[in-house]
Design a protein that fits this description.
mainly alpha, two-stranded antiparallel ribbon, 53% helix, 3% strand, lipoprotein, Putative phospholipid-binding lipoprotein MlaA, MlaA, signal
Length: 255
């Protein structure tokens, strides 16, 4: 889900934010207690709060953005913000002792920034220069820090105690943080949030059953997969279980 439900959206403070809800409504029923989610009562309330903001503010704007923005332009915007995340990947790869991945991230950033016209075009991927994305939450995991309890943050969405501790470092390692002009910085942040949310509109069909539990479980599975570099099993989004057609989407969101 463009790595939402999982780590979406590059994890930049506000950018991770409302996307976390993916337009989902909170369920009124609390399922059997999950040992990974000891604060479920609190988390469901925050989830519902995030959903209201997404439902009445972010999602309508994202739909309008998708409607008026040509596909090539939307792809370019996504590439641009993704490219800005490469320095963070390079730094965290070095902190984890993954020199090869750090080199790949650095190479991707240089190639896409220059040949790709500031990152608007992803030139590196067709050249098969690809690696794993890394953030400070993954670095803490590589250093042996436990993930802690599942936690839903206001506006920031699904997280864990460990990932929450890593957010400040993720924020300061994202280039737009250092844009001095407040209006430009806020504009870029807003565009990043809207573009990311628009990219999730087609992915909401993946959500089934109790939406809160679905998002929690897929988030935790994907984060564990990423922290272990895939050693704990298959990518939960690589399964045929997540391959739905348009009819499935219509049925799931016909309410």
């Amino acid at each position: 889900m463009k790595q939402f439900l999982t780590r979406w959206i590059g994890r930049g403070a506000l950018a991770v934010s409302l996307v976390a809800t993916a337009g989902c409504a909170a369920s009124g029923e609390v399922q059997e207690r999950n040992p990974d989610d000891p604060w479920e009562g609190f988390n469901r309330k925050v989830f519902a709060f995030n959903d209201v903001i997404d439902r009445y503010a972010l999602k309508p704007v994202a739909k309008g953005y998708r409607f008026i923005t040509p596909d090539p332009v939307e792809a370019g915007v996504g590439n641009f913000f993704s490219n800005l995340g490469e320095p963070r990947t390079a730094l965290n790869s070095l902190l984890q002792g993954k020199g090869s991945n750090a080199s790949i991230a650095t190479g991707r950033f240089l190639i896409n920034t220059t040949i790709g016209l500031g990152g608007l075009f992803d030139v590196a991927t067709p050249l098969e220069i690809t690696g794993r994305e890394e953030d400070f939450g993954q670095t803490l995991g590589a250093w042996g820090a436990g993930e802690g309890a599942y936690l839903v943050l206001p506006l920031l969405g699904p997280s864990t105690v460990r990932d929450t501790a890593g957010l400040p470092v993720d924020m300061v390692t994202y280039p737009t943080t250092y844009v001095e002009d407040d209006e430009v910085r806020m504009g870029l942040t807003a565009l990043r949030v809207i573009d990311t949310r628009a990219g999730l509109l087609d992915q909401e069909k993946m959500i089934r059953g109790d939406r809160y539990s679905f998002i929690r479980d897929t988030y935790l599975q994907q984060r564990r997969f990423e922290v272990s570099d895939g050693e704990m099993g298959e990518d939960p989004f690589a399964s045929d279980e997540f391959d739905f057609d348009d009819a499935d989407f219509d049925d799931a969101f016909a309410e």
